[in-house]
Amino acid sequence: MVCALVMPFDGFAQVKKSEKEFKEVLWEVKAIRSTTNFMKVVAIDKMGRQYDIYAIQDSDETSLLDVKVFKKKKQLAVKMLVGEKKYHPVKAIDDKGNILDIKAITSNGLILPVKGVSKSGNIIHIRAINDDFIFYNLVAVSPDGETNDVKGIKLSKDTVETALHGVEVYAHIKALKQ
Hints:
mainly beta, 13-stranded antiparallel beta sheet, globular
């Protein structure tokens, strides 16, 4: 006869405890091309005020991070909107449905639009685009120098993924492990 000692599993309580102990880490969102330095990426409201954008790491997991705009004490959703003819604009949406532009700023002050430019399956590649149609990748950079690519993620085959505060959304913006 085999006898087994059964111990109650308390793993759930341990998971909850470790989640509470984790300190949130903010990753800066930047634009880069292999031959240049990092460019700042910001949200700009209708009044021209600029707000920082971060990928948020809220656990030990770094494979998939949410991307948000920090406007005062609020975090605004960053989404890809239903596109124009060729590209899908990347914007922030506040809780009243106001749209903020997402832009990359070069070292000499040139402001570049940020758009979804191509699709591979459910992933939409996002780039900052200059007037000469030179594309710059968007990345999230951790305080330790680790990087994730900033991409659009499409969860459905429908053109409109969802509506957020009355704004039609094409895809969600996330920072993905390379």
